[in-house]
């Protein structure tokens, strides 16, 4: 299948979804920009570009904070809710590219690894192909990713759904799908990995013998209205930080 060529006239998101197109989104730019050194991670102020305010509730779904599995379970519940209420809406999902089976209600921000130790949880491109297929089968047509997603993850969505979309993304020129480019590798056991079955069935090791596979999420019980949750304009003082460090010590010991 050839990559898509030429520039199509820009159409609105609803127009594209209404015509049955599978739209691929990428909302993980804050994390990606921090890793590349473009933005300072501090206040973590999200920037949102609302390009299509006319969309409104015509598109329903979830974005960020949870992994692909939990996100799709949530979208499934939304779909059932819409059907029960006899409402029609396009479904969307933009999960994390991190595995978070152990996070609680607030999602990955409660994991002790957030935000700078999340790398061992990164999904593979194969996890993302599986997610794209499951999302499509569920009826989601705006399929994307949020924090942790890298360009190769988005490419994996586009490649998995190439039969439905009718074309491969331009970035597919840079590799062979399902590892097929490994067929020229100098080592024969690596050449043996040039196939879908290998990558689809691989159980991946973390390589961290003294680490747990799951973490205990923080649960400070800080909810809306708590003074510590107010975003302040002035810099956090040394004294305020010390109080938080003490509180963390106490919470960790529990
Ligand atoms: Zn995010």
From TrEMBL:
Major localization class: cytoplasm
What are its GO cellular component terms? cytosol; nucleus
Please report a single Pfam family linked to this protein.
Answer: S-methyl_trans
Q: What is the catalytic activity of this protein?
A: L-homocysteine + glycine betaine = N,N-dimethylglycine + L-methionine
Keyword Nucleus belongs to the record: yes
Region (Disordered), start-end ranges: 215-238
Assembly:
Homotetramer.
List the protein's name.
Answer: Betaine--homocysteine S-methyltransferase 1
């Amino acid at each position: 299948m050839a990559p898509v060529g030429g520039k199509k006239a820009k159409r609105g998101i609803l127009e594209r979804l209404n015509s049955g197109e599978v739209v691929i989104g990428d909302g993980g730019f804050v994390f990606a920009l921090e890793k590349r050194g473009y933005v300072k991670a501090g206040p973590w102020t999200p920037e949102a570009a609302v390009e299509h305010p006319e969309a409104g509730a015509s598109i329903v779904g979830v974005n960020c904070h949870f992994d692909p599995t939990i996100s799709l379970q949530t979208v499934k519940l939304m779909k059932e809710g819409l059907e029960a209420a006899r409402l029609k809406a396009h479904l969307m999902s933009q999960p994390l590219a991190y595995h978070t089976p152990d996070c609680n209600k607030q999602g990955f921000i409660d994991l002790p690894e957030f935000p700078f130790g999340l790398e061992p949880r990164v999904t593979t491109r194969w996890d993302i192909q599986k997610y794209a297929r499951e999302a499509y089968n569920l009826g989601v047509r705006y399929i994307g990713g949020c924090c942790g997603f890298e360009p190769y993850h988005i490419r994996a969505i586009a490649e998995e759904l190439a039969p439905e979309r009718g074309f491969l993304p331009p970035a597919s020129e840079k590799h062979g799908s399902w590892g097929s480019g490994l067929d020229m590798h100098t080592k024969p056991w690596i050449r043996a990995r040039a196939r879908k079955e290998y990558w689809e069935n691989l159980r991946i090791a973390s390589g961290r013998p003294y680490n747990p596979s799951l973490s205990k999420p923080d649960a400070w019980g800080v909810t809306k209205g708590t003074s510590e949750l107010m975003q302040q304009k002035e810099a956090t003082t040394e004294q305020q930080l010390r109080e938080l460090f003490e509180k963390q010590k106490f919470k960790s010991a529990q």
